[in-house]
Amino acid sequence: MRRPLVLGNWKMNGTKASNAELIEGLKAAAAGVDSVTIGVCPPAVFIAQIQELAGDSNICIGAQDVSVHAGGAYTGECSADMLKEFGVSYVLVGHSERRTYQNESDELIAKKFKATQDAGLVPVLCIGETLEEREAGKLESVITTQVNAVIDAYGIEAYKNAVIAYEPVWAIGTGVTASSEQAQEAHALIRKLLAAKDAEVAAGMQILYGGSMKPGNAAELMAMEDIDGGLVGGASLVAADFAGIFNAAK
Ligand SMILES: O=C(CO)COP(=O)(O)O
Fold first, then answer.
1. Ligand 1 atom closest to Cα of 236?
2. Quick check: CB of 143 below 6 Å from ligand 1?
3. CA angle 54, 123, 147 (to 5 degrees)
4. Domain ranges in the chain?
5. Where does this protein hold substrate (predicted)?
6. Chain centroid to CA 27
7. Number of helical H runs and strand E runs in the chain
8. 3-state DSSP call for residue 6?
9. Domain at 5-248: CATH code
10. What is the pLDDT of residues 43-57, one digit of tens each?
């Protein structure tokens, strides 16, 4: 049985004041929820604040990005060890917004995945197709390439301590959610790809859905066999909405 995981990706949102209000609301809503792992991924500059606010609550902290380097002359970068010092346990790698706006390649993303693991943190590999790719019948080939980038570089063992988030690009921030059948189809495909290499890794992998997940559609999505939680954008910025989602994962 895979444990549900619900992560909020705040993207580039928040102020010190709004963060405090949001975390206060989440702590109250998450208290006593012990069957779901709940986490928030704030912008890097706020991680220290969130660590302090979250205290010893059951809210985990994730980062939105990491450097491939361990340290040194890399202006603007932030290493996995630095994130770890501030209580980070998950790191998003390969989010479609970074693939698009920062031109991140599968090769670079695999390196970030490895740098995260080397520091003892859990990478959350984000994958997913664009609308154009879906309409051209390329869902399977896009997902296969994105999943295999890590296997080709580091072997299937690298997926032993990792999470995969399936986020169809056309569903992110658009209000258009993949139907539970469309999401399940992609998740099953991802699990099948892993199973072809290692059945145990495939069976244990938490595969999250992301893309306009809301309290109103979360239960149906997460009831699907291969959907083990959510990576939530917009709805994670409102405590009641995010709570509605992690409560639906119970
Ligand atoms: O990109 C996402 C999470 O990483 C999804 O964003 P939305 O939930 O705002 O569609």
1. 8
2. no
3. 150
4. 5-248
5. 9-11, 173, 212, 233-234
6. 20
7. 11, 8
8. strand
9. 3.20.20.70
10. 999 999 999 999 999
